[in-house]
Automatic annotation (TrEMBL):
<keyword id="KW-0812">Transmembrane</keyword>
<keyword id="KW-0813">Transport</keyword>
<comment type="similarity">
    <text>Belongs to the MIP/aquaporin (TC 1.A.8) family.</text>
</comment>
<dbReference type="InterPro" id="IPR034294">
    <property type="entry name" value="Aquaporin_transptr"/>
</dbReference>
<dbReference type="InterPro" id="IPR022357">
    <property type="entry name" value="MIP_CS"/>
</dbReference>
<feature type="region of interest" description="Disordered">
    <location>
        <begin position="79"/>
        <end position="102"/>
    </location>
</feature>
<dbReference type="GO" id="GO:0015250">
    <property type="term" value="F:water channel activity"/>
</dbReference>
<feature type="transmembrane region" description="Helical">
    <location>
        <begin position="162"/>
        <end position="183"/>
    </location>
</feature>
<dbReference type="GO" id="GO:0005886">
    <property type="term" value="C:plasma membrane"/>
</dbReference>
<keyword id="KW-0472">Membrane</keyword>
<feature type="region of interest" description="Disordered">
    <location>
        <begin position="403"/>
        <end position="424"/>
    </location>
</feature>
<feature type="transmembrane region" description="Helical">
    <location>
        <begin position="209"/>
        <end position="230"/>
    </location>
</feature>
<feature type="compositionally biased region" description="Basic and acidic residues">
    <location>
        <begin position="408"/>
        <end position="424"/>
    </location>
</feature>
<feature type="transmembrane region" description="Helical">
    <location>
        <begin position="277"/>
        <end position="302"/>
    </location>
</feature>
<feature type="transmembrane region" description="Helical">
    <location>
        <begin position="250"/>
        <end position="270"/>
    </location>
</feature>
<feature type="region of interest" description="Disordered">
    <location>
        <begin position="1"/>
        <end position="65"/>
    </location>
</feature>
<protein>
    <submittedName>
        <fullName>BQ2448_1367 protein</fullName>
    </submittedName>
</protein>
């Protein structure tokens, strides 16, 4: 007598399988064949995001709706592809419907609007940052010249070392502080020459680069105007060549000092590394060194916004003002060319990555002659064993990792006293 199999109880609503898409029209041939069970399965699990103390209320009390929060759905790959490619009556696909929200704004439109908002924020940040940086720097330069009794002299002599140092510190440290404050907002270029370098290497879009340069020039004008209005004496921060220096020599000085600043930005800010957060310090020091090298000869432009602002406020453009802009942008191009060449030659492989923490890098450092000599010398001291200490730490980390893995797999349980025992 054959035994009858008991009837299967219907699955609860919360555990119902995800329905396969209905094959209609020309899509009937792509329906799941009989042997589809052997095909790959994609599992989609919806996590419970309501929190540990959440209880269903209102419409969520319905068992079917509540169960959908936790259900695990198995969808054969061929059904998933069929579901994605299924067309609606109006000819649109499922993917195209999902990219349009209920209010009629496409995802692409929202993305463009968000990018435009970010560009506006970057321009506003560059204007404010450039204004603060140059205002503080101009104030320092005005204080230095006024207190030194040079209010009637538009240029500084190479022998006025205290004034040169004071102005260089004002520009360098003003950039450090303001750049560090705005680094996470705008990137802290505050310099059209630096912006050109970042745009050439793909760090900025064309739209943002144009807006940022305009904002920087306006920030330089505003900083020069306010500095002139709140200080006494002659406004003496305008760039000018020292008497007897030719325009060609001044151009070379401006080009090289600007190239140093732009190259520092590219290597420390555009090249992301563990030391990127310290980039404003190095950039400020590069500007400080550039001022020490050029302020006694050209007045240290190094920044088109810094050169342009005082000229507008003073309503005076010297006949050789062109050499500052040409030299500064040539310096930007020079630094960018060097940076691109180094990237093309894979400069990272010359000395190895300083940001790598893998075993091969550590082994190379430990195997260096200096490290070997230090270890051998230290091992002669009683109670000091550098090699054994490192090995012990590595072994302890490995033991802890094994214990954690065993607990996760359920093969061991934690006992009072910090010990692990195997489950019987």
């Amino acid at each position: 007598m054959a035994m009858e199999r008991p009837a299967q109880r219907p699955a609860p609503a919360s555990q119902k399988a995800f329905p396969a898409p209905r094959a209609t029209g020309s899509n009937r041939s792509s329906a799941a064949p009989q042997g589809a069970r052997n095909r790959p399965i994609l599992r989609f699990t919806t996590p419970d995001v309501r929190g540990p103390g959440w209880e269903p209320s209102g419409a969520d009390r319905d068992e079917e709706n509540y169960g959908r929060l936790r259900q695990s759905r198995d969808i054969p790959v061929h059904q998933l592809q069929h579901h994605q490619d299924e067309k609606h009556a109006d000819g649109t696909t499922e993917a195209s419907v999902r990219t349009t929200h209920s209010h009629g704004i496409s995802y692409t439109g929202k993305r463009v609007a968000r990018a435009l908002i970010h560009d506006i924020l970057a321009c506003v940040g560059e204007f404010v940052g450039t204004f603060l940086f140059l205002f503080l720097a101009f104030q320092g330069a005005q204080s230095a010249t006024y207190n030194r009794g040079a209010v009637n002299d538009q240029s500084l002599t190479t022998t006025d070392n205290q004034t040169i140092l004071f102005i260089a510190l004002s520009f360098g440290f003003s950039l450090v502080v303001v750049a560090w404050a705005f680094f996470r907002i705008t990137g802290s270029a505050f310099n059209p020459a630096v912006t050109l370098s970042l745009w050439l290497v793909g760090g900025l879009s064309s739209r943002r680069a144009i807006g940022v340069v305009i904002a920087q020039l306006l920030g330089g004008i505003a900083a020069a105007g306010l500095s002139k209005g709140v200080t006494l004496g002659t406004f003496s921060v305008q760039n000018s060549l020292v008497t007897g220096l030719s325009s060609g020599k001044g151009l070379i000085i401006e080009m090289l000092t600007t190239a140093l600043l732009c190259f520092t930005v590219l290597m420390l800010a555009a090249e992301k590394s563990r030391s990127t957060f310290l980039a404003p310090v190095a950039i400020g020091l590069a500007l400080f060194v550039g001022h020490l090298a050029s302020i006694g000869w050209t007045g240290a432009g190094i920044n088109p916004a810094r050169t342009f602002g005082p000229c507008v406020i003073s309503a005076s453009f010297p006949h050789n003002a062109w050499l500052y802009y040409v030299g500064q942008f040539l310096g930007s191009l020079l630094s960018t060319a060097i940076y691109v060449l180094l990237k093309h030659l894979d400069y990272e492989e010359v000395v190895g990555s300083i940001d790598s923490a893998d075993a091969s890098q550590s082994a190379a450092i430990d195997g260096a002659p200096l490290m070997k000599g230090l270890a051998n010398t230290a091992n002669l001291i009683p109670g000091v064993q550098i090699g054994e200490e490192v090995d012990t730490d590595a072994a302890s980390h490995a033991t802890v990792s094994d214990d954690v893995a065993a607990m996760e797999e359920g093969k061991a349980e934690h006992r009072p006293g910090g010990t692990l025992t195997d489950k019987a």
